Amino acid sequence: MKTLALIEYFNRILPLDEKEIAFVEEIFKERKVKKRQFILQQGEICKQNTYVLEGCFRMYLVDPNGKEHNLQFAIENWWIGDIGSFHSNTPSKLNIEAIENSIILQVKKEDQLKLFTNYPKFYQIFRVLTENSMVGLQRRVLQNISATAEERYIDFLEKHPNLFNRISNVQIASYLGVTPEFLSTIRKKIAKS
Predict the structure, then answer these.
(1) Spatial contact of 50 and 75, defined as CB atoms under 8 Å apart
(2) Which of 11, 82, 151, 164 could be 46's S-S partner, Cβ–Cβ 3.0 to 4.6 Å?
(3) What are phi and psi of 153, to 5 degrees?
(4) At the top level of its lineage, which domain of life is listed (predicted)?
(5) Is the pLDDT of residue 53 over 80?
(6) What's the angle, vertex CA 56, arms to CA 111 and CA 27, rounded to 5?
């Protein structure tokens, strides 16, 4: 039962009863994704909310000059998706790509709405998820406007030690908003101190 990890995840927020568990098992669909495979590409509408069971993903934007800007990474027990596209039913400006061979659980928007309607407890669960996401986003924005690149890198290492060996330095640099060369300089400086 692949949904077990997701059910345990939900139970840590609010315990589920048997009917709620059965509905989660019914509406969340397992999908295997190969490394470098997309679950969302720019121009598509994000029609599913995605929970990562195994593997690693990145969400990124490609600017008009062809440069990639990583916005988010997601590993086991994390959620990933273009929330703006998902809720407004508009084409996404983002790409979501597997960095590793992965297994995910996805729920369609209409099924997630049924989850909320049939089992109001999930409003509370997803409210907590959304609030946690907003806190993280606000923290990242504040850090980007007030911290040095070195401070952002150190914070990234401290907050995400389990990501460090799973993504490339180029992807970390993109996430931090620096060039790979500048990140290399930062890493050398930190290693010396």
Answers:
(1) no
(2) 82
(3) -65, -45
(4) Bacteria
(5) yes
(6) 15
CATH architecture entry for 4-120: Sandwich (2.60)
CB atoms within 10 A of CB 41: 12
* Structure confidence by residue, pLDDT tens digits, 102-157: 999 999 999 999 999 999 999 999 999 999 999 999 999 999 999 999 999 999 99
Helices (H), 83-148: 83-88, 109-118, 121-146
Distance CA 78, CA 70 (A): 16
How much is the pTM? 0.92
Tokens in use for 126?
A: 């997803």
Contact 27, 114 (CB under 8 A): yes
Q: E strands along the chain, which residues?
A: 29-33, 38-40, 48-54, 57-62, 68-74, 79-80, 94-98, 102-108
Q: CA–CA distance from 171 to each of 32, 84, 163, 177 (Å)? A: 23, 23, 11, 10
Name, in order, each residue with C-beta under 8 angstroms of 142's C-beta and a sequence gap of 6 or more: none
Residue 72 backbone dihedrals phi, psi, to 5 degrees: -155, 150
